[in-house]
Amino acid sequence: MQKLAVIIPTLGRSGQVARLLDYLGHQQRLPDEAIVAAPDATHVELPEKCRFPVSLALGKKGLTAQRNHALESALDRFDVVTFFDDDFVPADDYLRRIEHAFARNDDWAVVMGRVVGDGATNAGLTWQDAEAALSASAIDRYPGPEVVDHVGAYGCNMSIRTRLIGDLRFDERLVLYGWQEDIDFTSQLRARGRVVCVSGIRGVHLGLKSGRVSGERLGYSQIANPIYLIRKGTVPAGFALSLMGRNIAANLARSLWPEPYVDRRGRLRGNLLAIAHLLKGRVEPEYVLEIQSG
Fold first, then answer.
1. C-alpha span between 62 and 121 (Å, rounded)
2. Quick one: pLDDT band at residue 292, thresholds 50, 70, 90?
3. Hey, how many other C-beta atoms are within 10 angstroms of the C-beta on 202?
4. Is the model's pLDDT at 212 over the cut of 80?
5. What is the bridge-based pairing of β-strands 194-205 and 88-90?
6. Using H for helix, E for strand and C for coil, what is the string for the chain?
7. Cβ count near 52 (within 10 Å)
8. What is the pLDDT of residues 78-100, one digit of tens each?
9. Residue 211 above 70 pLDDT?
């Protein structure tokens, strides 16, 4: 039997962490341990009772640094690490299917589940929305293929075979929210095994808006981070340029009538600032730290 840890990076969502940990107690295959990565204990609330061990990886701030801090404590003790965003709601058979996927496919390095509802694309979803989407997806037959290879994994839910990680770590130059840190990390693992999405492994990303970076900071990262990763050589240029183009187009088109839950004008300002820096030959993901967070 493989040993499996769930890693949950979090910031400013202590109640959400408690609810997710409680929810994971209903998994058909319980995690052998959950590791919550947070800047300090004020960001973490634990449920009164938990059906599996929970440990804390404290002292780091920023998604990539928090992922790495938790990873360091897990690599030598577990066969598989599953990263969940703190607002991801997995189907109750999620971890059982993950374990079976790695056991039956020795050439798989990274496995992500199918996101059957994503609040990141709208105003956000509730737990009730998530449970309804999971119930519906369990009944409806998915028309697509069972397994699809990907450039990289969507970080809200991704599982990795630890023996293939070696000295690879998340790039801590991708500060704060990260933005494409998941693709950067998992795309490098394609040299060691397949990176796949399995449609039968399901979950919902609530897309909560609390704890996010400012619109201008995110807009800057939408340009600076993909360019940095192209130059680094970890992300295909076609993938990164297409992503940048879609984000610029969306921010530009919707800046006149922005959604109430998205700072489109801030994102557009960040896009333009990053483009200006690019034209000057400056590509520094860390510059977002110099942008005011208001």
1. 22
2. confident
3. 24
4. no
5. antiparallel
6. CCCEEEEEECCCCHHHHHHHHHHHCCCCCCCCEEEEEECCHHHCCCCCCCCCCEEEEECCCCHHHHHHHHHHHHCCCCCEEEEECCCEEECCCHHHHHHHHHHHCCCEEEEEEEEEEEHHHCCCCCHHHHHHHHHHHHHCCCCCCCEEECCCCCCCEEEEEHHHCCCCCCCCCCCCCCCCHHHHHHHHHHHCCEEEEEEEEEEEECCCCCCCCCHHHHHHHHHHHHHHHHHHCCCCHHHHHHHHHHHHHHHHHHCCCCCCCCCHHHHHHHHHHHHHHHHCCCCCHHHHHHCCCC
7. 15
8. 999 999 999 999 999 999 999 99
9. no
Measured from the Cβ of residue 98, the count of other Cβ atoms closer than 10 Å reads 26
pLDDT above 70 for 156: yes
Close Cβ partners of 256 (under 8 Å, ≥ 6 residues apart): none
The answer, yes or no, to whether residue 177 has pLDDT greater than 90, is no
Q: What pLDDT digit, counting tens, does each position of 113-126 carry?
A: 999 999 988 888 99
Closest among 181, 159, 161, 180 to 170, alpha carbons compared: 181
Q: Which residue do the tokens 């991801």 mark? A: 88
